[in-house]
Amino acid sequence: MVYYMVTWTIERLLDLEPYEFEELLGHLFTKMGYRAEVTQRSRDAGVDINVSIENFGLSHTWIVQAKRYVEPVGVKEVREYSSLRYRDNVDGVIIATTSGFTKEAQKEALGHNVKLLDGPLLAKMLERYMPEDPDRRVQQCALSENRETWNIEGTVLKQGEKTLGETEVFFRGERVLMACTNKRIFLIKDTSSLLSKRREVLHSMEVKDLLGWTHETPSLYLVMGGRQITVLSMRARKPENATEMLECLQQGYIRGEHLLKFERTKDEFIVLTNKRIAKIHSSGGADEISLKNILGTEIKGGGLLNRSKLLLIGNRKENTLYEIDCADLASWKEAIEAAIRVS
After folding, report:
1. Which of residues 240, 257, 274 is at a domain's end?
2. Residues 249, 180 share a domain
3. How far apart are CA 21 and CA 13, in angstroms?
4. Per-residue pLDDT tens digits for 115-171
5. N or C: which end of the chain has fewer CB within 10 A?
6. Considering 206, 228, 257, which residue would you say is the last residue of a domain?
C-alpha cells in the first residue's frame, strides 16, 4: 500500500514512523543531487544519514540527524550532535526536525557549522524537490530481494528470511518496535542515547508458533502456541500498519494449529483453536483441554442470582467439568462443537 500526498505538511511528517522519516530525508537529499545513505539502525553510531556531494574534484560530506519532534530542539542536543563533526571528520552536521529550535540552540549551531532545518523549511524543500513523491511508507507485503538484511543486537536474519516491516507498539507499558520477517516476529526496545543507538530484543517468536492474532481497538493480541498457549497483549500506535504486516504472515501458520475464536474477559483470555481450548489467567498460568477429550457441551445456570456458564464435559483423563464464563455462551458453544466435529 502506497499513500500519495497532495501536499507536504508537518502533520503528515509527524504521522511517519521514525525510520520512515529518516528514509524520507535520505530520498530528499538524493533528489537534491547528493549521495545519501540512511544508516543501519543497529549500528549507526548516532548518525541517521550520511550525505555527500562531489563536483570537479571538490567533495563535501555531512552528517544528518533526523528529529521527528513536536517540541523544539534544545541547545543540549545541538551541542552533543555538533561533536559528531569532529569525531567523524566531516564538513558539518545537519539537524532536520518537524518542529523548530530554541534561540539558544540556534546560537549554538552558528559556532559549530551545524545547519538547522525546521519543520516549515523542510516542508518547502519537499514541495520543491518531491512534489508528487509517495511518502516512503514500507509496502508491508513486498518482500524485496534487494533489501539489505539488518542485524538486531547480534541476531542476523536466517537464510531465506526477509523483512516485512516494523511498527511501533506499546508492550507492558513501554514503547517498542514490532518487527516482522517471513519467519520471525521481534519485539525490540530502543535503548539509544543521544550519541549512540542500541536495540534490545525483548521477544523473538517463530512464525510457525503463531496460532493467530486479533485486533480489538486499541489492543492487539498475538496468540502463540507450543506446549502451552500464551497471549501477548499490546497496543499498536498505527493498527492498520500492524494488521497489514500480520496478514502477510498468515500462510506461514494457518496450515497447522490455528486460532478459531478469542475473547478477553475481566480476568482471563479464552482461546479456541482447531485442536484445543484454553483459559489463560491474567495472574499467570493456564487451563487447557484437548478437543478430542471433550464429550459434550452444556449451558447451565442463569437467573437472578447465578450467571450462566458454558460447561465442557470431558473424559476421565480431563476434568469432568470445565467451565467457561464468556459474553456470548451460545456462539462459543456452537464454535466449540463445530471444531470438535472436524478435529
Report:
1. 257
2. yes
3. 7
4. 999 999 999 999 888 876 544 343 333 333 334 444 444 456 677 777 778 889 999
5. N
6. 257
